[in-house]
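quick one before i forget lol
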Amino acid sequence: MKRTQLYLQEDMWKVLHIRSRQDGTSISELVRNAVREKYGSSPVGRRESMQALVGLRKGRKNMPDSTVYVRRLRKGKRLARIAR
């Protein structure tokens, strides 16, 4: 299993938080199940889903560079959090 980090909008996080309490499970498990349902658990289904993503951003001028975007999200507050 691989670890990842997601940025969720506040309203989506609240929905997942409520659902996880109702189901007695974690938000992580809800996300894993949703990804499994959406992208399939068979090797063929996974391959088809991943192939559909190839080139999705190619040629899009209105999207910022992902590295710049993530660094901008993290900027400023990280050192303050670590120092606590």
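fyi Helices lie at 10-23, 27-39, 43-53, 66-74, 78-83.
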